[in-house]
C-alpha cells in the first residue's frame, strides 16, 4: 500500500485523545470534523448505539471517509460513468461512549494513522464533511436565486463578497 500517514501539523489542543470528554455526541462530531479538516481528511458517522428505553446515544463511531470498502453494486453493470472508488480500508477513527455517571461522552478509542495520502490545506474545503452552508449563506443563495441571478453569477458574487 502507500504506507502510514499520520497528521503531524495539527496542534495538540486540537487532537483527540483517549479519555477526552464531550458534553454531547454532536460536539464530539464537530471536534473530530475540525481535527479532520486541520489534518487533511474527511470524516463520516459509521454507527450509533442508542438506549432502547430512552433513545439516548450510548456510543458512536466516527471514521475517516475512506474507511472500509464499497459494497457490491447490484445495479446495472453497464453504467456510462461509474463513480471512482473512494474507500481504501483506512482504519482511522474516533469512538465515544456515554459515561452513565457523568452523563458525558468519553473517547474510548482513537486511531490517527491513515493508509492513504492526506489532503492539502488548500483543498480541505472540498471534502464531503467540510461542505457546509451556514444559515447566512443559505439566505444569500436564496436571495440571489429569487433576484434572477444564474448560479454562476451568484457564485461569483458570493466569492467577491467573502474574499474581498
Automatic annotation (TrEMBL):
Pfam families attached to this UniProt entry: FAR1
Domain annotation FAR1: ranges: 31-118
InterPro entries recorded: FAR1_DNA_bnd_dom
Protein name: FAR1 domain-containing protein
Species of origin: Quercus lobata (Valley oak)
Amino acid at each position: 500500500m502507500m504506507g502510514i500517514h499520520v497528521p503531524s501539523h495539527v496542534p495538540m489542543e486540537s487532537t483527540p485523545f483517549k479519555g477526552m470528554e464531550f458534553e454531547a455526541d454532536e460536539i464530539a462530531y464537530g471536534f473530530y470534523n475540525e481535527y479532520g479538516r486541520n489534518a487533511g481528511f474527511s470524516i463520516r458517522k459509521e454507527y450509533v448505539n442508542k438506549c432502547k428505553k430512552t433513545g439516548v446515544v450510548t456510543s458512536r463511531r466516527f471514521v475517516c471517509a475512506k474507511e472500509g470498502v464499497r459494497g457490491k453494486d447490484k445495479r446495472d453493470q453497464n453504467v456510462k460513468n461509474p463513480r471512482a472508488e473512494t474507500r481504501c480500508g483506512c482504519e482511522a477513527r474516533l469512538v465515544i461512549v456515554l459515561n452513565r455517571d457523568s452523563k458525558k461522552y468519553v473517547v474510548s478509542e482513537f486511531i490517527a494513522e491513515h493508509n492513504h495520502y492526506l489532503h492539502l490545506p488548500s483543498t480541505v474545503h472540498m471534502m464531503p464533511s467540510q461542505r457546509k452552508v451556514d444559515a447566512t449563506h443559505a439566505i444569500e443563495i436564496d436571495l440571489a436565486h429569487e433576484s434572477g441571478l444564474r448560479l454562476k453569477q451568484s457564485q461569483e458574487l458570493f466569492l467577491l463578497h467573502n474574499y474581498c
